[in-house]
Write a structure and sequence with these properties.
Elements (H helix, E strand, L loop, with lengths): L19 E7 L4 H15 L2 E4 L10 E2 L4 E3 H12 L5 E6 L3 E2 L5 E2 L1 E4 L4 E5 L14 H19 L18 H6 L6 H5 L3
Parallel strand pairs: 1-2, 1-5, 4-6, 5-9
Antiparallel strand pairs: 3-4, 6-7, 8-9
The structure holds zinc ion (ZN).
The site of zinc ion has 8 residues, from helix 5.
Length: 190
């Protein structure tokens, strides 16, 4: 029994429930990228955003043949972390991700478990032998983070090519859309 609760409060939580997004840095992902997300995501989703403790490189998800990490396994790890926090969990990592179906991806979500993860790996121009910059990388990571977090809130692919929920698999399309939700998608966030 929790002491000090009057009978009229007994069916209510002892503290207000604050829906929030917890960002978990994974592996060696750069601090500035994580900071950028924690500054920009609150306005997009209207939620409090917190940074959680960094976890080590997900060796358990590594596929030696592909030299990539299975994103579904990483999402299950994040789901364990989510058990101790309220709201959504977003992992951010530098490791290269692939899905169970074999596709290499920028990020992915587990809608049922309300967790998402994004990787900086294929969002960097350096990956393609080009000269990149941090600002461009941060914008791309933010768009991917919005897209996959949106998935955990039940949002579907959007028809508006400027909305972050528009489905993109190419950097060219990703660079066209904006790091925001269109008004329709924003209204659908619970
Ligand atoms: Zn939209």
């Amino acid at each position: 029994m929790v002491g000090g609760l009057s009978s009229r409060n007994k069916n209510r939580p002892a503290y207000p429930i604050v829906e929030r997004i917890t960002i978990i840095p994974i592996g060696l992902v750069e601090g500035p990228v994580v900071d950028f997300l924690s500054h920009r995501l609150p306005e997009v989703f209207g939620k409090k955003v917190e940074k959680g403790s960094r976890i080590q490189k997900p060796h358990f998800a590594y596929n030696e043949k592909r030299r990539q990490y299975l994103v579904d396994a990483i999402l299950l790890k994040l789901a364990q972390i989510r058990d101790s926090v309220r709201g959504r969990v977003l992992g951010v990592t530098e490791v290269d991700l692939y899905r169970q179906d074999g596709r290499s991806v920028f990020g992915h979500a587990n809608r049922e478990r309300k967790v998402a993860v994004v990787s900086t790996k294929r969002l960097q121009d350096e990956y393609y032998g080009l000269t990149g910059n941090l600002e461009k990388l941060e914008e791309r990571v933010l768009k991917e983070a919005i897209h996959h977090l949106g998935d955990t809130y039940g949002l579907k692919g959007c028809a508006n090519p400027l909305c972050a929920m528009f489905d993109t698999s190419q950097l060219l399309d990703l660079d066209i859309k904006k790091p925001v939700l269109c008004s329709g998608c924003k209204r659908a966030i619970p």
